[in-house]
């Protein structure tokens, strides 16, 4: 987000905090499953002890790669005064 819209960085950190918070206390608060599904980490298998499925990890890695490519393109487009 820094490369595309730097002023939105605070919103990005709020989203990260919400995803972590959902993962840590969502079950304890007995939040409904649609709310828990907002975090990408709820779609990953619980390890160790769970069955390893590659599809959720591959999808999460693909989304991270696309967002990383967009960030790199946005950063290259910006005039950083160098």
Separate helix tally: 3
Shape designation: flat
Q: Determine the mean pLDDT.
A: 83
Order of helices and strands: HHH
Number of domains: 1
User: What characterizes the major β-sheet?
Assistant: none
The separation of the N and C termini measures 20 Å
Structural classification = mainly alpha
Instruction: Give the tally of β-strands.
Output: 0
Helix content: 40-55%
- Poorly predicted runs: none
Estimate the strand proportion: under 5%
What Rg, in angstroms, do the CA atoms define?
A: 16 Å
Transmembrane segments: 54-74
Keywords: Membrane, Transmembrane, Transmembrane helix
Task: Provide structural commentary.
The chain crosses the membrane at residues 54-74. Keywords: Membrane, Transmembrane, Transmembrane helix. The chain has 82 residues and is mainly alpha-helical. It has one domain. It is 55% helix and 0% strand. The chain is flat and about 50 Å long.
Key terms:
single chain, 82 residues, mainly alpha
List the helices and strands and how they pair.
Layout: H1 9-25, H2 33-36, H3 54-77
Transmembrane segments: 54-74
Keywords: Membrane, Transmembrane, Transmembrane helix
Summarize the structure.
The chain is mostly helical. 55% of the residues lie in helices and 0% in strands.
């Amino acid at each position: 987000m820094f490369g595309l819209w730097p002023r939105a960085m605070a919103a990005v950190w709020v989203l990260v905090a919400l995803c972590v918070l959902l993962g840590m206390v969502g079950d304890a608060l007995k939040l409904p499953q649609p709310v828990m599904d907002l975090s990408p980490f709820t779609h990953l298998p619980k390890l160790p002890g769970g069955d390893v499925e590659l599809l959720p990890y591959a999808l999460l890695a693909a989304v991270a790669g696309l967002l990383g490519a967009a960030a790199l393109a946005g950063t290259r487009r910006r005039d950083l005064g160098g």
